[in-house]
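// run 5 | inverse folding | seed 20
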């Protein structure tokens, strides 16, 4: 959770600086406009940020050579979050500074978080955006990281090995790199030579957190990378074309202990007892989260969020569910339907079902008609029937995440010299 007094990540208050001004020297052609299965590389990440309900504004930083082509691309589709296409600088840090200046001059206090992303990474997904915002809210700055599997050696000036580095302490860093404005703006110094934007925060002694990257989130640098990207798209398209769905089940139960309120489905229920648990004890959301994780083949709630971990003590189970869905989305799946049953003798829960449906729909950003919550009792049989506890069971249906979304009406887009 973020420290007291800093912004959280529950609103659409994030701005994106999308970097597309590189020279593409090793690629030999402008990779931003290079077509990948019929679409420009830049459009893949642009579409993801446009779709994210966390993002309110996007500034694209382009080169002099591709600026007008990128503006035409934006104008040909309904990318209404793109407020400007500005010129980049000679170095990465200059381009970042230009984008941040434009973003803040246009949107000012409405932006609490800044995401800086390489347009040459087409496969950023909404789950990464969510994870990055949560980590940046806590640390001030955060970067997506992957463990290093190869042995890494440092090399002396004469080309011989200096030493073998401990790879358990090494991470490969990706983008988007995510920052709270109050941390990044004062740290951003274009005079410094850097290879990524988090280095600015490191140079002033700031904390940079890590969040899980995605192995598909590759950077297109050489022609071989294009082949890798096409293979990723082919794999995803084949899985989607098969109409593949997955189903998972989840179950959870907790004892009732004295003192309210009772928490179910993210809703406070008037009752003299509450559910005992390491978190808030919300058995319904726990069962749903386990069902979602199980359908994706990602274990269960306990293996992903251990009850012995103090980080989850007293946590709102809505956040646990959101994290479970983010992990699932990172694996290429999205929730398409939920069916769940609450098993309780007391209190009477039927009057709360609509509120619970609405709460879960809001938590997961899915239609309320994709959720079906039922309540039943055991007719006074067993511990639940004696009022000693409440249980819930759930079935989750997952579908392959779509790669593309439909384009809409054209609109004008302003470039930096207009």
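// decoded
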């Amino acid at each position: 959770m973020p420290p007291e007094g800093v912004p959280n990540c529950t609103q659409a208050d994030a701005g994106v600086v999308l970097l597309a001004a590189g020279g593409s020297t090793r690629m030999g052609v402008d990779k931003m406009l290079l077509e990948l299965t019929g679409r420009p590389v830049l459009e893949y990440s642009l579409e993801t940020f446009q779709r994210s309900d966390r993002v309110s504004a996007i500034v694209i930083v382009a080169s002099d050579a591709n600026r007008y082509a990128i503006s035409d691309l934006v104008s040909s589709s309904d990318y209404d979050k793109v407020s400007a296409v500005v010129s980049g600088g000679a170095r990465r840090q200059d381009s970042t500074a230009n984008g941040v200046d434009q973003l803040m001059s246009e949107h000012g206090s409405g932006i609490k978080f800044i995401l800086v992303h390489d347009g040459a990474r087409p496969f950023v997904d909404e789950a990464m955006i969510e994870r990055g915002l949560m980590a940046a809210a806590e640390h001030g700055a955060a970067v997506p990281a992957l463990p290093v599997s190869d042995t890494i050696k440092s090399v002396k000036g004469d080309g011989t090995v200096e030493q073998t580095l401990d790879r358990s302490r090494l991470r490969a860093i990706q983008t988007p790199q995510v920052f709270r404005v109050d941390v990044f703006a004062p740290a951003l110094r274009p005079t410094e030579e850097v290879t990524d934007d988090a280095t600015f925060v490191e140079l002033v002694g700031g904390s940079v957190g890590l969040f899980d990257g995605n192995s598909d989130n590759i950077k297109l640098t050489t022609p071989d990378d294009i082949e890798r990207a096409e293979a990723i798209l082919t794999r995803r398209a084949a899985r989607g074309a098969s109409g593949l769905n997955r189903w998972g089940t989840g179950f959870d139960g907790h004892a009732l202990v004295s003192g309210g309120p009772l928490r179910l489905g993210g809703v406070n229920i008037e009752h003299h007892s509450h559910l005992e648990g390491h978190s808030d004890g919300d058995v319904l959301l726990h069962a749903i989260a386990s069902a979602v994780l199980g359908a994706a083949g990602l274990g269960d709630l306990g293996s992903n969020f251990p009850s012995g971990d103090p980080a989850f003590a007293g946590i709102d189970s809505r956040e646990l569910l959101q994290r479970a869905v983010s992990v699932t989305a990172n694996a290429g799946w999205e929730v398409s339907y939920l069916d769940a049953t609450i098993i309780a003798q007391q209190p009477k829960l039927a009057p709360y079902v609509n509120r619970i449906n609405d709460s879960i729909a809001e938590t997961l950003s899915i239609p309320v008609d994709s959720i079906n919550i039922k309540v039943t009792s055991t007719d006074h049989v067993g511990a639940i029937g004696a009022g000693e506890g409440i249980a819930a069971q759930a079935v989750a249906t997952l579908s392959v995440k779509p790669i593309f979304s439909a384009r809409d009406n054209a609109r004008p887009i302003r470039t930096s010299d207009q």
